Amino acid sequence: METPGFLPMARLQTLIDTLIDDGFRCVAPQVRDGAILYDTLDKVKQLPKGVTQEQSNGRYRLHQTDSTRNFAWANGPQAIKPLTFAPREELWYSEVKSDGSLKFYQAPTETEPVAILGVRACDLAALALQDQHFQHSFPDPYYDARRKRLLLIAVHCTHPAETCFCASTGDGPEARSGYDLSLYETDLGYFVTAGSLAGEMLLHRLPLEAGDAALFAAARGETGAAADAQQRQLPEGDLQAMLFGNLNHPQWQAVAERCLSCGNCTQVCPTCFCHSENSVPSISGQSTAHERQWDSCFSPGHSYIHGITLRKDTASRYRQWLTHKFGSWHEQYGRSGCVGCGRCISWCPVGIDPTEELAVICKDSAGDSA
Fold first, then answer.
1. Mutual orientation of helices 141-148 and 121-135 as an angle, nearest 10°?
2. Which residues have a Cβ under 8 Å from the Cβ of 179 and sit 6 or more positions away?
3. Helix pair angle (354-361, 314-323), 10° resolution
4. Furthest-apart CA pair in the chain: how many Å?
5. What sign results for the dihedral spanned by CA atoms 234, 240, 245, 248?
6. Taking residues 75-98, what's their average pLDDT?
7. For a pLDDT cut of 70, what percent of the chain falls above it?
8. Type and span of the H or E element at 102
9. Measured distance CA(259)–CA(207) in Å, rounded
10. What secondary structure does DSSP assign to 23-38, as a single string?
11. How confident is the model at residue 365, as a pLDDT?
């Protein structure tokens, strides 16, 4: 790979200023309430400079160091899903007219251009899956409007968390596609590459310097080392066949005895798309909004059909999540629904690790398929 142009650390503000001048709302990771979240940014000093993280089963902590790097961490709880698939939004609304009739209106889909700085490889892979769900066959106009006005600047991961396993799913830590620009971070600055025409046009406007080949080789080596450092992995083989061949495995009940059915795992998952739709009347009674909001297959209402809750216990709900995510997604989207970000492990209150559950359930591939 040819050595890319180099953006010194002191000139990162130029990239942010260029995005803002082009009419983008610049969104980037920042420390909020003890976690790294994406929020609007206009100054480099808002980035989590020198911040590292500690993640393990049910544990997430940030630590401040004297490092010059802004992206020396793996991920926070948020991902970029809320910026395309809103946690709660109005789809349409109705109003009572003066003659007593009802008139219906579609909620506007106009959105502002958003540039996200600091996207991880796992979240780019998750976005590609969300694109398949929301933009193919029957495109969702609200998702589609946001997605088309999104500019993505990836940062290749060099500091995996203990919970990461993106190398096992083939989705990281180096971003390979789906971005407009990508950055290899070093202590001195960033090697910048373009991944789209929009990224190419932006790249030519940045004050880049000639890149040092040895420093670039070292930067790429860090992403390779990040892959080698990951300890968790998915079981090898056909997960769909193994999961559906073990629907009565005793481990489903064993994990249910620990699981709280809180839905944290589905809320932080960058690929989950389950939602509910609700009518919200105004206090005056003259209008009603129809809203969509995130839901979870761990909620009782998710399997409620015609007066019956099909999945009444935690064991059946956890089984639904795991068999869908790692099994039947292959039929729907051609791959697993997991990108190895590890958020479900870190943000589970009781520290349940799906890779461990899968290892137990899939150990006997000839399990009970009744």
1. 140
2. 119, 124, 152, 153, 154, 195, 196, 199
3. 90
4. 76
5. positive
6. 94
7. 98
8. strand 102-106
9. 51
10. TPEEEEEEEETTEEEE
11. 61
At residue 306, the pLDDT reads: 87
Average pLDDT over residues 282-306: 92
Side chain identity at residue 6, one-letter code: F
What element of type H or E holds 39?
A: strand 35-40
As a whole number, mean pLDDT of residues 358-365 equals 86
In terms of Cβ atoms closer than 10 Å to its own Cβ (0-12, 13-18, 19+), residue 41 is buried
In degrees to the nearest 10, what's the CA dihedral of 187, 189, 191, 196?
130
Token pair, residue 71, equals: 């992206």
Rounded Cα–Cα distance for residues 281 and 287 (Å): 6
How are beta strands 35-40 and 25-32 bridged, if at all?
Answer: antiparallel
% helix, strand, coil for the chain, step of 5: 35, 25, 45
**123 residue type, one letter:** D
* For residues 15-24, average pLDDT: 97
Give the C-alpha distances (Å, rounded to integers) separating 201 from 119, 181, 241. Answer: 19, 10, 46
pLDDT digits over 324-350, tens only?
Answer: 999 999 999 999 999 999 999 999 999
Q: The sheet that has 88-96: what strands, in order across it? A: 102-106, 88-96, 287-294, 275-281
What's the token pair of residue 296?
């979870």
How far is the C-alpha of 273 from the C-alpha of 133, rounded, in Å? 8
Residue 1's pLDDT is what?
80
Residue 171 is given by DSSP the state -
Q: Is the peptide bond before 173 cis (omega within 30 degrees of 0)?
A: yes
